[in-house]
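USER: For my understanding, would you kindly supply a protein sequence with its structure tokens?

ASSISTANT:
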Amino acid sequence: MTEAEKGGESTLTVVLAGGVNLAIAIMKLVAGVITGSGAMLSEAAHSVADTITEVLLLTALRRSDRPADRVHPFGYGKERYFWSLLAAVSIFASGAMFSFYEGFSTIFGEPEEQTAPIVGYLVLALAFAMESVSWVQAVRQVRRESAAARQTLGEYLRLIDDPAPKTVLFEDSAALVGLVIAFAGLGLHQLTGSAAWDGAASIAIGLLLAVVAYLLGRTNRGLLIGRQADPRLVRGIGGAIIATPEIEALVDLQTMLMGTDQVLVCTRVDFDDSLGASDVEHVCVRLAAELVEKFNDVTEVFIEPVPRNDPDLRARVLARYGDEVATRWNPATGSGPAAPPSPGAAG
């Protein structure tokens, strides 16, 4: 799938989710006022938070596509991560916090009589059907892209460089679970006559939103800090460098995600000592072009000629990757690059 196709599908996923969430938020708010259900009002806040999230994600998709300029020579790709991080904060601030407030107010405040619970049930059922439409679109996109990347769904979500579909998938999944919780709270309130069940449901919804906000925030934090590319891509790049006839050793290889489908490659290599300065320059230009052509995500390549036995450089590589990887990259006994550590903590 091309970058344009992925961006178009991400936009469709976000716009569909935003429209659905706005409609559901209005329905839940009206039902919450009619029924007096704290859980229903918490779900209304949940949908408002989701709507704000979609607006932020749409902003991310639009602003991150701007071309590089003098002020930002590597482009604006990381804007997508910044706005997606704000979306995670929005889920916590406007969704989870209101749900906690509503839940504790319901449990410890003045008891409110439940009225017209059938309205709540109908709205929750309709909201579940509508949310399912958005959720199916998010699942379809994530499954298609994970299959194209030849990764399991879990691997793809952990290594994803486009936070938009992951955000929509997580928030829609949370929305469906939240609707079930609200339904249970409304039903138990009606059966027992105790508003504590309604309040407990609100608190449970708040906890659910807090967990989702944390998971999404962790993902975007890692991307903003600067995460390495997919380890399989890094191995492929390293193999292509080692296979270059004029290069005797791959001394160091660093990659960083600069945006969705945008990878920066910085490598240090030991060239054949028989090459002249002009030869090295031409090899660098040729190799950079080959890497960009062979690996679609690679957008920038920097190549630095270095001696393989420089102690300070080797110490830095050892500190970053450990002895096994550095040994395979650097010394004469090495046969090629090893896989850099998998970014397991990147979320």
